[in-house]
Write a structure and sequence with these properties.
The protein is α+β, with helices and mostly antiparallel strands and 115 residues long. It contains four helices and four strands; from the N terminus they run H-E-E-E-H-H-E-H. It has a four-stranded mixed sheet with strand order 1-2-4-3, sandwiched between helices. Strand 1 and strand 2 form a beta hairpin. The N terminus is likely disordered.
Amino acid sequence: MKIFSLKKNVGDILEYGNFLSVFPIKIAYFLEKRKKKTTLIKLIGILVKKKIFKKSVHRNKIKRLFRASLLFNKYILEQKINFNKIYIVFIYKGLFLPTFKIIDTSIKKILNQIH
């Protein structure tokens, strides 16, 4: 297990983190134990391939859908990681422009799988 510096980056999370996948979303996360009794969630990034979605408008829409869904489902993650620090990178693997319903159901399934 690698000891991270204070500044985490996407490469470290992708290299040393754990992976979960529910189509069309894949996540890489790293769970860090804390002595303090507070929960800290750090969203490192949301990755959408430029090769698939050439227009930045579409990539940014997907990222906004992710952030909105995470805002609604943050309580699931807070219950799961109880007083630890978690770093998350979301990767969108789909080939189509998703709706909020697709993103929301996938994120709920993935957040329930985190241990």
